[in-house]
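Hello Y.,

Per our agreement to keep a running log of every chain we model this quarter, I'm adding this entry. I've kept the format consistent with earlier entries: sequence first, then predicted structure.
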Amino acid sequence: MAYQEVTRTSYGSRLGNSLKGIVTGLLLFVAATALLWWNEGRAVKTSKMLKSAESVCVDVADVSTVDPALDGQMIHATAVAKTDETLADPDYGVSVNAIRLVREAEYYQWVEHSQSQTKDKLGGGQETVTTYTYSREWVGAPVNSANFHDPDYQGSNSVRLTVQDKAVSAAKVDFGGYVLPPALADAIPADSPVALPAELANGTDTFVSGNVVYYGENPSAPAVGDVRVTFTQADGGEASILAQVTGNSFEAFKHKNGKSLMTLRMGNHSMASMFESEKAANKMLLWVIRILGILLVIAALRMMFSILVTVLKVLPPLAKVGELGVNLVTFVVGLAWSLVIILIAWVVWRPVLAIALAVVVCLLVAYLVSKSRKAAAAQE
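Predicted structure for the entry above:
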């Protein structure tokens, strides 16, 4: 059964909140504008860095031995990432030859979910009905049920034990004759299951299945409070890198504009494909932040002008019309403002491209104007 709470807000409180929203909206508007500006510069700087790195990158076919001639150079190479070290988790008697050993604990808990519906009342007041529902889920940390809204579920959670997440990494990861720095070694995914000692199971409330230790009476029918601990390892294998050589290891290629590049991908990837992936990622991030920035600008304007809607809330039908108008205006103004900021940023960060685009637009406008004049003259 769902649990509901009703909250009523007076007209005066709503006006006060709307006034606060003007300040908050103004701050958000400035931050969102700055985000749009920064994003354009970030994308251009990253693009220049990638172009510079690609122009000097050396495709090295064999890195089985350290080549002093490569020191300080940006390279692409493919080799097997591996280690001779043995990593251990003494708490569970686990010992493996791996680049990284990861232990993750999950807890079967009641989790609270909420959904709110708000209605305007005659006179400007507001009524909010919040519905709370509860479900049992595997989560990464114990849930404090004392804060649940439904009294029937308060204190309903418990755990058999708490287990700290843990990750152990090899100190030395070989890449041919070179050694991977931690930043590249950490990019190797720990996605292989670890074989666990069978003696970890006691047959009553501790079970072992594959790479999972289960604490509970029945793994097939989990109960609140049960815990499962999963072990995975990074085995390494063939990988391709883009990085700058420094001695017998690697570091990031650094451009004069402050952007840098050092990356690893599992498998055998050509230099061209790796740079294309980096360029695609930069373009994707550019558009994601653009869209986010535009939405934030629109949201900020709505917050700033929400006072107009709140004033009309005395008569809900009138407020709906006003809200529709505010939403439309803030959307148009927010979109226009965002495009202007992006355009100005283009002029600053991409002057050649921006000028070329402006010339094309001017020529197009001139062509359309000339065509319309000729059509008008022909009709006369």
